[in-house]
UniProtKB/TrEMBL annotation:
Signal sequence annotation: none
GN (gene name): Or-257
Membrane-spanning segments: 29-47, 67-85, 127-147, 167-185, 192-211, 242-262
Keywords annotated in UniProt: Cell membrane, Membrane, Olfaction, Receptor, Sensory transduction, Transducer, Transmembrane, Transmembrane helix
UniProt GO BP: signal transduction
Protein name: Odorant receptor
Membrane topology: Multi-pass membrane protein
A single GO molecular function term of this UniProt record: odorant binding
Similarity comment text for this entry: Belongs to the insect chemoreceptor superfamily. Heteromeric odorant receptor channel (TC 1.A.69) family.
Subcellular location: Cell membrane
Single GO cellular component term: plasma membrane
Length: 351
C-alpha cells in the first residue's frame, strides 16, 4: 500500500527523491550524480536571472519580465532545498500513516484511505496537466520565435560569451530543461504538502468510523486513543517541517500575483501561471462522531478517555506560516491586497 505515489514519482524523475527500494550502491551513486546535475541546473538558471536583475536591468519593463520568471524559480529552489533536508522527516510521516494505529485494517477503513488518496492523486494529475500545457506553450513559442532569432528564452547574465553555435544551444537547452524540471518539481512539492494535509483529514475520518463502531473496551479503543495522538503529532510535524516552505510561498505569491497583473496590463496575449490554493478543516466533526457512538454502554474509564479526546478535539488543527500567520482565506486576501498595491506602484514607475 502506497500513498502519494504520483507525487513521489515526479520527485524521483526530476532527481529529488531516491526510492527507498533502491538499496544497490550502484543505483544510489548513479542517482546521486543525476540528482546533482538536475539541482545544479536549476540553481544556476535561477542565479543567472538574479544576476541579470542586479547587473543589467535598468527599467521597469525588463525588471517585470525577469522577475516574472525569477520568483517562481526562487520559490522552487527553496522548496527543493527544504524537501531534501527534511527527507528523513518525510519518510517518518509516511511510516506513521502506514503503521499501526493509523494504518487502515477493516475494508471500510481501506475504502476511506483510497477515497482520500485518489482525490489528491487526481488533483496532482490535473495540476501536472496544467503545468505541461504551460510548458508546451512556452517551448513552442520559444522554438518558433527565440530560436530563429538566436535569442535565449529568458534574459540571463552569463559569465561567458554564448555567441558560438555550440554554447548557444547548450545555454538555450539548459534554460528550457531547468524551466521544465522546475515546473514539475514545484507541482510535486506543493502536492506533497497538500497530500499530507489531506491524509490528516483521512485519519480523522477513519478514527470517527472506528469510534462509531466500538461496543466495548478493547484493543481497538486503545488504538483509537493512540491514533488521535498521532493525528495531532502528524499535524505538528507537517507544520514544523514545512512552515518555512509555506512562509516563502505566501511571500512569493504576493510578487507572483503582482507581476502577473503587470504583465497582463501590458498585453492580453500572455497568461503563464495558474495558482491553486486548498484550504481545509474538519477536526471538529470528531466530537459529534463521539456522541453518535454507543458511549452509554461503555465503562467509566472509557468514558474518561473519550472526554480527553473530545477536549483535545476542541482545539483545531491550524497550519501557520511564519509562526503567526494562519493559512486561511483572510491571509490569501491580504496577499491579493498587497499585490495590488505593489502593482499600482509599478504602474506609477512605468509612467
Amino acid at each position: 500500500m502506497h500513498i502519494l505515489e504520483f507525487t513521489f514519482t515526479l520527485l524521483t524523475i526530476f532527481g529529488c527523491w531516491r526510492p527507498e527500494s533502491w538499496t544497490s550502491l550502484y543505483k544510489q551513486i548513479l542517482y546521486y550524480i543525476y540528482s546533482s546535475i538536475m539541482i545544479i541546473s536549476l540553481y544556476t538558471f535561477m542565479l543567472s536571472q538574479l544576476m541579470d536583475i542586479i547587473l543589467i536591468v535598468d527599467n521597469a519593463d525588463d525588471f517585470s519580465d525577469n522577475v516574472f520568471t525569477l520568483v517562481p524559480m526562487l520559490l522552487t529552489c527553496s522548496k527543493i532545498f527544504i524537501l531534501l533536508i527534511n527527507r528523513k522527516s518525510i519518510i517518518m510521516l509516511i511510516n506513521i500513516l502506514m503503521q499501526k494505529p493509523c494504518r487502515p485494517v477493516a475494508k471500510k477503513e481501506i475504502e476511506i484511505l483510497y477515497k482520500f488518496d485518489n482525490s489528491i492523486q487526481i488533483n496532482t494529475r490535473r495540476f501536472t496537466v496544467l503545468g505541461s500545457i504551460t510548458s508546451l506553450c512556452i517551448l513552442l513559442t520559444s522554438l518558433s520565435i527565440n530560436l530563429k532569432q538566436r535569442k535565449l528564452t529568458y534574459r540571463a547574465w552569463l559569465p561567458f560569451d554564448y555567441s558560438s553555435t555550440t554554447l548557444f544551444f547548450l545555454t538555450y537547452s539548459h534554460q528550457l530543461i531547468s524551466l521544465l524540471a522546475g515546473g514539475y518539481l514545484n507541482i510535486a512539492c506543493d502536492t506533497l504538502i497538500c497530500g499530507f494535509l489531506v491524509h490528516i483529514c483521512c485519519q480523522i475520518e477513519i478514527l470517527s468510523y472506528r469510534l462509531r463502531n466500538i461496543k466495548f473496551y478493547s484493543d481497538i479503543f486503545r488504538d483509537c486513543i493512540r491514533q488521535h495522538y498521532h493525528i495531532f503529532r502528524l499535524a505538528f510535524l507537517v507544520n514544523v517541517k514545512f512552515r518555512l516552505t509555506m512562509t516563502i510561498q505566501l511571500v512569493m505569491s504576493m510578487f507572483i500575483v503582482c507581476f502577473i497583473l503587470y504583465q497582463l496590463s501590458k498585453t492580453t496575449a500572455k497568461a503563464k501561471y495558474i495558482e491553486m490554493i486548498l484550504l481545509m478543516s474538519c477536526i471538529r466533526q470528531l466530537i459529534d462522531d463521539i456522541f453518535e457512538m454507543e458511549w452509554l454502554t461503555l465503562d467509566k474509564n472509557v468514558k474518561k478517555s473519550l472526554i480527553i479526546i473530545m477536549k483535545r478535539a476542541i482545539i483545531p488543527i491550524q497550519i501557520t506560516s511564519a509562526y503567526v500567520i494562519p493559512m486561511n482565506l483572510d491571509s490569501f486576501m491580504g496577499v491579493l491586497k498587497t499585490s495590488y498595491s505593489t502593482y499600482n506602484l509599478l504602474q506609477q514607475m512605468r509612467k
